[in-house]
Amino acid sequence: ICEICDVVETGKIYNLGVTRTNKGLRLKHGNNERIFRLEYVSNNEISDFEFQRWREAMIKQGISLPTLDDLEKKMKEIEESKHYVYNNNDITQIVQEKKRFRKAPINYAVTKNELLKEIEIAKDENDIERETELRKRLTEMEERASELDRKRSENISVMA
């Protein structure tokens, strides 16, 4: 059992179910505080043994246990967060985050078009470094698309 102190970005991007992320939790157990990737954090119910171990650690380290008032406040916060209405900035940030960790674009044609536009902008602004980086990304994306196309073709010929 730990107290969640903060949500942070870790140095590693990892798979969490079907999602890729670099999020971690800063967790506190007694006076000990450490960051854990979400893949290592359990969301199972707390056992009596785990509760007793946490309680003993808190008492041994002289940390006061949460009161019923503390628990009621936290439950109210959780209930309010369930009804949170996302604004445009929240949605934009979520979309950018998902795009950032995606291994491959959802639509190669749209992504290629966006990259070509960005290359033109970089060229117009005389930003050679950015243009080079964008061209590299475009080449990598085209190679990945060609590889996928080749695999699809192989699968089709095997079925025929």
Characterization of the model:
Helix 4 runs antiparallel to helix 5. 57% of the residues lie in helices and 19% in strands. The chain has two domains: 74 residues, Cathepsin B, Chain A, CATH 3.90.70.200; 52 residues. The chain has 160 residues and is an alpha+beta fold. A hairpin with a 2-residue loop joins strand 2 and strand 3. It contains five helices and three strands. Strands 1-2-3 form a three-stranded antiparallel β-sheet.
Unreliable segments (pLDDT under 50, ≥5 consecutive)?
A: none
Q: What structural class is derived from the secondary structure elements?
A: alpha+beta
CATH topology value of the largest domain: Cathepsin B, Chain A
Overall geometric form = elongated
Main β-sheet description? 3 strands, antiparallel
How many strands in all?
3
How are the strands of the biggest sheet laid out side by side? 1-2-3
Q: If helices are DSSP runs of H or I spanning 4 or more residues, what is the number of helices?
A: 5
- What is the average per-residue confidence, as pLDDT, rounded to a whole number? 88
Percent helix range: 55-70%
How big is the Rg?
A: 24 Å
Q: What's the CATH class label of the largest domain?
A: Alpha Beta
Q: Name the CATH superfamily assignment of the largest domain.
A: Plus-3 domain
Percentage of residues in strands: 15-25%
How many angstroms does the end-to-end distance come to?
Answer: 56 Å
Order of helices and strands: EEEHHHHH
CATH-defined architecture of the largest domain: Alpha-Beta Complex
Integer tally of domains: 2
